[in-house]
Amino acid sequence: MSAFPIGSLPERRARRSFQRGLSLIELMIAMLLGLLVVGSAVGAFLSNQRTYRATESLSRVQENARAAFELMAREVREAGGNACSNGVPIVNVLSVGSTWWSDLGNGVVGYENGALAGTAAGTDAIDLLSATNGGVVIDTASNPNAANLKVNTSDHGFETGDILIVCDYTQGSIFQVTGNPSSMTIGHNTGGGNCTKGLGVPLICDGGNGTPKSYAPNSVVAKLEAARWFVADNGRGGRSLYRVAMDKGNPAGQSEEIAEGVQDMQVEYLLNGSVNYVPAAAGLDWSQVVAAKIALQVEGPGREGTDGQALQRDIEHVVNLRNRTL
Questions:
Q1: Cβ neighbours, 10 Å, residue 100
Q2: What is the top-level taxon of the source organism (predicted)?
Q3: Which of 202, 227, 205 is nearest to 213 (CA)?
């Protein structure tokens, strides 16, 4: 209860003293403290944002590298495989230089330091070839002087120009389908992509029969699958890893972009009996390649690395050619 009568002058002065607001100094101190709190919160937010972007960029790098190695390694492992024994000699009767396949009887061919046209400067490329898992079998022993194979079904799916392999447990022969495959007959005549119809060894590309080879019933005929892996500009200011499937001796359709941000690919090869990996080179015996060491330089999106540079990681993977090591 107030000591002064209500409404008196002393009582009114005492009431005004209790209602007095903040001074200017107090207000400025409060604003300064508020700014410090807000600044700390903004700093923490920006730091967390940078950490998030760096983590996201690194995740993209790892994701792209994982996808690239997973898909490429699968085809490297299968390179050189056929539907018969892995150890049989392979004869390639395709005309030298007539098709991309003429160099791939050994299952793998590499290109060093931008040697393949259309690839990014300084990067390597690799071609891989193997037989499909499916196939048909020969029903009637082939005539070594004829130019066709009799198979056990008309539902083979082979077309003119397809590259096939026929093999038994003594030999395999790569050839191109000629003519229009009829119900159970697959042609391999001279002309088109074949330099001979003989299918035998030693290969004599004389435009005639060559060295004859007869394939007995139950020999397997299968289509060959091939793909080319390379690094090229992606049209968005960067580089990507691409794969192009090969069909009938030539690239089929558009290149597929497999992994974004791949700046470089370097491939070295281990030859049977050797301990050192070597780069692709003229005269390298591709039939003796038993493993490939693939190194990718992958760059993440944004500029989240040191000094405002993009994050980069160098990742290396070794893949054995299963068909030559098992």
A1: 20
A2: Bacteria
A3: 202
Q: For every residue of the chain, which 3-state class applies, written as one string? A: CCCCCCCCHHHHHHHHHHCCCCCHHHHHHHHHHHHHHHHHHHHHHHHHHHHHHHHHHHHHHHHHHHHHHHHHHHHHHHCCCCCCCCCCCEEECECCCCCHHHHCCCCEEEECCCCCCCCCCCCCEEEEEEECCCCEEEEECCCCCCCEEEECCCCCCCCCCCEEEEECCCCEEEEECEEEEECCEEECCCECCECCCCECCCCCCCCCCCCECCCCCCCEEEEEEEEEEEEEECCCCCEEEEEEEEECCEECCCCEEEEECEEEEEEEEEECCCCCEEECCCCCCHHHEEEEEEEEEEECCCCCCHHHCCCEEEEEEEEECHHHHC
Distance from C-alpha of 50 to C-alpha of 54, rounded to nearest angstrom: 6
Give yes or no for a cis peptide into 89 (omega within 30° of 0): no
Residue 4: both structure tokens together: 């002064």
Domain chopping of the chain, boundaries: 25-82+110-125+228-325, 132-223
Res. 31: pLDDT tops 60: yes
Token reading at 304: 């989240």
Encoding tokens for residue 300? 């993440």
pLDDT of amino acid 124: 96
Confidence of residue 267 (pLDDT cuts 50, 70, 90): very high
